[in-house]
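Q: Predict the bound structure with iron/sulfur cluster.
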Amino acid sequence: MKNCSTYKSTCSYCGVGCGINVNKDAKGKITVDGDPSYPVNKGKLCSKGMNLHYVVQDTSDRLLYPQMRWSSQHELQRVDWDTALTRASAVFKSIIKKHGPDAVGMYVSGQCLTEEYYLANKLTKGFFQTNNIDTNSRLCMSSAVVGYVKTLGEDTVPIAYDDIEHADTFMIAGANPAWCHPILFRRIEAHKEENPSTKIIVVDPRKTQSCAIADLHLQLNPGTDIVLYQAIGRAIIEEGDLDWEFIKNHTDGFDTYRKEVLARTLKEASAITGITIDKIKLAARYIGNAKGFINMWAMGLNQSAQGTNKNLALLNLNLITGQIGKVGAGPFSLTGQPNAMGGREVGGMASLLAAHHDLKNPDHRQKVADYWGVDHIQEKPGKTATEMFEALHSGEMKAIWIVCTNPMVSLPDSKFVEEALKKAKFVVVQDISNKADSIEHADLILPAAGWLEKEGTMTNSERRISHLESVIPAPGEALPDTEIFCRFAQKMGYHGFDYNSTEEIFKEHAVLTKGTNIDISELDYATLKEKRSVQWPYKNGKSTNRLFTDNQFFTPNKKAQIVCTGVENSSDSINTELPLILTTGRIRDQWHTMTRTGKVNKLNQHIPLPFLEMHPNDALTRGLKDGETAVIQTERGECRVNVNISSDIKQGVIFMPMHWGKISNQIFARTNNLTANKIDPISKEPDFKFSAAQVVKY
Ligand code: SF4
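A: Predicted complex:
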């Protein structure tokens, strides 16, 4: 660890990826500031980033040493690292030998650093010889990934944040960046202040804080997004605001698309979506007349049983108007987690291969297998996040290694997940906090180092890779995740895990990208430290801020694909017993399951307790007054929270934040007790935004 007092890092919360200066005084006390020289945030931080030092300094909940139990009848006991990893390797070897490699799996996180992700993927796909590794990014970005691959030929975000200051029209769909991506939102806000003619369309069933700068709020009926985007597409066609030149030369599929969108009248679309024809036409006019149009979206689209098709329907609006590959224009998925993109780069999902190689391609599989020095990599995709827990539940899988994520709170249908963990033969939990709920069912607990306690890299939402320095030692016996994986691999007798530094792991990943669309093979830590960050691909010493400026896409024929979607939907159906639509989301000052932000008093003051947002008419018919406790019921289970009556939400829709668990005997807010284990058939992303529900007085 260095002795200097200021270190460079990147915020460990959302995918905006703000640059942070970490100051350490002579007594080791840490404070943080936004890095004024960092292009993403130019010195600013949101409330969560600003308070990161409290999280680092409060070690009261940290896991400090490995713990293990010999069977479910035994208590957990403190053990040393050697005993812990010897046992882990013995159990994994025995299960793989007896039941085959697909009986084990790893469930990792978009908060892992790229090097950690790379090793977890290498360990699982290369050496366990199963593709059963998935990440909680499955719950966040997998629909966007499939959307990009189908239309642009690669999992890639084409634009840079700098495009914000050049755009004149934004559509923010299924996202509340004012609370969930605050620094980006402030850039949009400042841009609109300076350029009042900038048009902003917000698409959301709730009137969120992001609507404060909206020129047009399309408060659609939940689940009708595809119909809305197709209707806007139709209105753009009818107004003649297409970019014919771009469509003709750089896309496929427009004729089929035109037939699909013209098959439904605007009147029919209006009846389905709840948006007036005038508003649909106005949105189409804003987009059709834009000089630079940025289409931003997040979980409102992705977390759906129709997530892939919602993404495609939205992306089509950029393609028919030629709003991609030029300054101030493009589709832009907002990433929830700090390193969801880095995880995809190293292939840390069940359906991916390292360095964006294609798991379905035998040459790619052999190339990666040779690179890792193993015989082969399985062709069959692994089980995704929810599928792994189904397999643990059914007994098909026996062991799971959970790294830096809290599935009992964050996966849908929490009770099912808890049952799955109870049924598993061996559960490893590798985490920083003793508040991770899965610990209750762990057979082995491995204490990991946290932010500032290890070095590595992350990639933010605009493909920007940054290096995070190690600033302080980890408490107790906690180790960096990379070291845990390497020590375990050596216990397993695997070769190729004897790195001398974290940078060696990074270089191994980087070299594998050579010749791919995400090529960073020239990149090393020295360059990252000198330049502070670069955007991939990084070739000939140059970062790439914007992709497709030559209109050559990553598809085989170099054309973008306009893909028709259909509107089939396997979400819950509302009925007389469950007449309300429950949608879930985040609040400004909490992060995921609150294992970190929940420790900070300042952050808890913003909204101290969970709540149910409900329209006044829905509250009235149920005899509920503001602040009273309500019971929310779905087919999966129930929660109890206080009601927040608000006309900002559509009648018939209710909203709960996803962060809390049990607060007291009266208040129980584990939202995923209510959500269904229903997934998009293509992206396998769960549907958190549409659960049929009822609300009654407590
Ligand atoms: Fe951190 Fe995101 Fe806030 Fe930036 S906007 S400080 S990355 S939480």
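A: The first strand starts at residue 6 and ends at 10.
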